[in-house]
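The passage that follows is intended for readers who have already worked through the single-chain material. We present the inputs for a multi-component assembly, then the predicted structure in tokenized form, and finally a short commentary. You are encouraged to pause after the input and sketch how you expect the pieces to fit together before reading on.
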Amino acid sequence: MIKSYLIILGCNSSLPTKNFHPTSQILYMRNNYFLIDCGEGTQVQLIKAKIKMNKINNIFISHLHGDHYFGIMGILSTYQLLGRKNKLNIYSPKGLKNIIYENLKWSKSKITYPLNFITLKSKKFKKIYKDENVNIYIIPLKHKIYTNGFLFKEKKKLKNLNIKNVKKIKEIKISDYLKIKKGKDFVKKNGEKISNSYLTIKKKNKLLSYAFCSDTSFKPKICKYLKNVDLLYHESTFLHEKKKLAYNRGHSTSIQAAKIAKLANVKKLLLGHYSCRFPNIGKFEKEAKKIFNNSETSKILKIYYI
Amino acid sequence: MIKSYLIILGCNSSLPTKNFHPTSQILYMRNNYFLIDCGEGTQVQLIKAKIKMNKINNIFISHLHGDHYFGIMGILSTYQLLGRKNKLNIYSPKGLKNIIYENLKWSKSKITYPLNFITLKSKKFKKIYKDENVNIYIIPLKHKIYTNGFLFKEKKKLKNLNIKNVKKIKEIKISDYLKIKKGKDFVKKNGEKISNSYLTIKKKNKLLSYAFCSDTSFKPKICKYLKNVDLLYHESTFLHEKKKLAYNRGHSTSIQAAKIAKLANVKKLLLGHYSCRFPNIGKFEKEAKKIFNNSETSKILKIYYI
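Having made your guess, compare it with the prediction:
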């Protein structure tokens, strides 16, 4: 099984530069390609990252500031041109559907693949997605408009059968397999209990987690949702010398991002959403490391294994 | 005076590639920077072309297919962030204003600089813009939705005074200057006529013109509007082997673009809007040259002096 990983497609904030890539990320987790935010130019970044666009079935939009969603129309149009058939789910605050349909209306275009909008409106930590492998939660952030972070958690996998031992117990039928895979012991008709550990293979099965928190001002309350995550991406729009400006604009500094990482005891912190007023990105890392050593500045198209 | 020139910011058609730059161009003409179409990523291309965005006061959108306008929200937002004060005119088919305001509504954003929408709806060749230096006309094209080409024509400039000679005629007042600059002779009180050629400096003053025609299927009727233009950009989405497909999709082939150039007796033809199914762009030029020798494929960020 491929290990979960994150690819940063863009981590600039809103003002464009020559190499401007506003927020967008691909999280690969247990056979899912989750697209997180979708700034202008995301579809080209996906091509550069060699991600087959059609593998994305779920898009998560943190908030409706343009640098986090202006690329979505391009992606939806491209899917249409490529003849997409599979369903696409878009998790977003209210309004994105209206924006998309306003575009389609005036261009006399249609989306013929199934497009499913899930409107996020809760201001509480809440599960918004589950499949057999992954749970996803929204984390309420503090920004100028309604904004969510996202927490992605791998779920406990079904155990693998020790088929040699299973076969030894004649009473076990195929219809019993799922229960055993889920961890149950098997009880024979005569009452004898066969331990699950005998019937399954022991595997190291660490459950990985990733959290995305952007955009937000410093909000230590979120730490309880971020406890021990393997990788945290937290915005650090400003260096700490601009902490007042950061607060006024609903953003964080690198020191504040590092404090969140430390309080939540995460394994690794990725910084991003840098304001273009700071051309030396290295300073963000330097500042953050003072508080939380395993801090790193996001690099475009780099793969971060979780 | 700087000669008029065109910079191609993007000339791909709608399907993205690694170096995807959908349609957008900057025309510099007599102190104006006209932005023609605005596909996704245009603002970054402007930075790469070293065009100061704030110098653009007029944007022309040919039609509302995404590859011709998905970059406009990014530009408008950036203007807001940069504190733009000067008025921005947007010439576009009906609907773009609605799309823009739908975006602003949900992001709770405001545009505080003057934004003026000029809705294009005529299906006839028509003047839509004039200033003291330039006239601009729409050219009705033939596409899947309502689409205009644009014709940009330099206007006759005011003559420069031969100030030495002017001073010799004591009766001439400053208030007479404009008439003389416009080409009038001066008549003295005693009825003596002073020839305009004596009062002004002879200058070679060729009036340049540029025409943009994209997207369109083959429409020879437009040639009468394109007669003798110095530079024509005409879409050539397909090679001629796909002329049936071109027709069905509302597009042209390289041969058809060249036929238009020849019929209209233009000076130079620029091809563009290539479908990504043809990785060898050189073939477009080769085909077009058979019909019209001064044909060239558009190259990103190249400056074409008119």
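Commentary: DSSP finds ten helices and 18 strands in chain A. Chain A has a mean pLDDT of 95. How closely did your sketch match?
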